[in-house]
Design a protein that fits this description.
single chain, Jelly Rolls, 9-stranded antiparallel sheet, 4 helices, DUF3472, DUF5077, DUF3472 domain-containing protein
């Protein structure tokens, strides 16, 4: 009797589990069979400003162009589209694609979180394809696209995804202005503007930074000692090259350094060993200097900047970085900027990505031990800073950038499409550093 009773219990449990599984499948099927939403009711999200190749095998040709995803040939390639919704709920999704030549077809996988749906594509004219419904949380949503099968060389050209439903009824956000597509794919830059605790003229800015391990994506610029006329920090230029970069803007407003009149050019006073010097453009123009140096994430670096008028109508700006393996303080360069006679103003730091293909990757930096030294020789600590953002953020094209405090250090983070929001212009305070820097200015190179 006991054996029979046990068998009955097991059978009942199996039926219940099977029923739950069957009901779950019916629910999924019901979701997929809900009515298609009309294209006119959906938000059209262009891949040109909102997509990235997030997994790309060697020698693959996929690219995000001004028309969207192109050269889609590799099965291993994953492309991801990002947008932000204001509330959780059931999201409806379509996509706009074509497959050329006309007699070819393909099947692709569309995934959000752990839910995937397969879509069959055909035809060499753009058309919209029903994908289905997905449950999403508020904040940034990631849509992954991967090819499965194809009869020709290409899976498809894909220009847009189309989304609707409850999550899109409140505060949907994505890059919708073609003028911002490039900047949106780079991601929003963010800044810490330091409160200088004196009205006396300041001759030196001192600061330290550390890039946490794993936060040094290619294309990152971690700018430590910024001032009204330029910037000084470290960047990741490629998988094999890193730089210490110091630049000073010309007073002539142009993105083309060749247009700067000779009397308004930034002139080099001197430079350090192994330092390259030249000009830069595209984001203003001026004098640029950098040292190729394999700085490391997880290690702190010290920066010193000097600004002093030459008393004949120009100002000399000089930058040093402390590198233990290169003997201590290293001169990057000293530049003379014409048509200005002042000491340092505008102490700030910033974080940016300059590689639009890596805008989906996150980066973070910590700024600590910030000081200013007056002309009279007094060191004063920094304990307050304002978090600010760039035009991309302010235009609501993309808002994954935050600032704050971490372990008594000012912190900036951007990229990666995280959903946390810190209000721009928030002001943060730390306990002021106690021990002023000890620097022998007479022996600086």
């Amino acid at each position: 009797m006991q054996i029979i009773r046990t068998i009955r219990i097991i059978t009942l449990l199996s039926l219940c589990v099977g029923s739950l599984s069957f009901c779950s499948k019916l629910k999924d099927d019901a979701i997929d069979n809900e009515a298609e939403l009309a294209d006119s009711t959906l938000f059209e999200i262009p891949l040109a400003g909102n997509a990235f190749i997030t997994n790309k095998p060697e020698r693959a040709d996929e690219a995000i162009t001004e028309n969207g995803l192109a050269n889609w040939t590799a099965v291993e390639t994953v492309s991801s589209v990002y947008f932000r919704v204001g509330q959780a709920g059931r999201l409806y999704l379509k996509l706009r694609a074509k497959v050329a030549p006309a007699d070819n077809s393909s099947t692709i996988r569309v995934s959000i979180n752990d839910i995937s749906k397969e879509v069959a594509l055909s035809g060499d004219d753009y058309q919209t394809y029903h994908v289905g419904y997905f449950d999403v949380d508020s904040g940034y949503v990631k849509v992954d696209l991967q090819g499965l099968t194809k009869t020709g060389d290409y899976f498809a050209d894909l220009s847009h995804i189309l989304v609707g439903g409850k999550p899109t009824t409140d505060n949907i956000l994505y890059a919708n202005d073609p003028d911002y597509y490039y900047w949106a794919r780079r991601g929003p830059s963010c800044h810490m503007a330091y409160t200088v605790p004196t009205t006396d003229p300041v001759e030196y800015y001192y600061g330290e930074l550390i890039v946490p391990i794993g936060e040094d994506a290619i294309g990152s610029y971690f700018m430590s000692n910024g001032f009204s006329e330029g910037y000084f920090g470290i960047q990741v230029n490629s998988a094999t090259e890193r730089r210490v970069l110091f630049s000073v803007w010309s007073p002539h407003n142009t993105d083309n350094p060749e247009e700067i009149p000779s009397h308004l050019r930034i002139n080099l006073n001197k430079k350090g060993d192994d330092v390259y010097t030249g000009e830069f453009g595209n984001e203003g123009s001026g004098g640029q200097s950098y040292l190729k140096y394999n700085w490391k994430a997880g290690e702190p670096y010290k920066f010193l900047l000097k600004g002093r008028p030459d008393n004949i109508g120009s100002t000399d700006f000089t930058a040093w970085i402390y590198l233990e393996d290169r003997g201590g303080w290293n001169l990057i360069a000293s530049w003379k900027r014409p048509e200005i006679s002042k000491h340092l103003t505008g102490f700030h730091s910033f974080l940016e990505n300059f590689n639009p293909d890596n805008g989906h990757l996150g980066r973070r930096v910590l700024f600590s031990n910030r000081w200013v030294r007056t002309v009279a020789g007094n060191w004063l600590p920094i304990q307050e800073a304002k978090f600010t953002v760039d035009a991309t953020y302010n235009a609501q094209q993309r808002i994954d950038a935050v600032g704050g405090i971490e372990n008594e250090q000012f912190c900036l983070q951007n990229g990666g499409f995280f959903s946390e929001v810190i209000a721009p212009n928030s002001v943060f305070s730390i306990n002021p550093p106690i021990e002023a820097p000890v620097i022998d200015f007479d022996t600086l190179p």
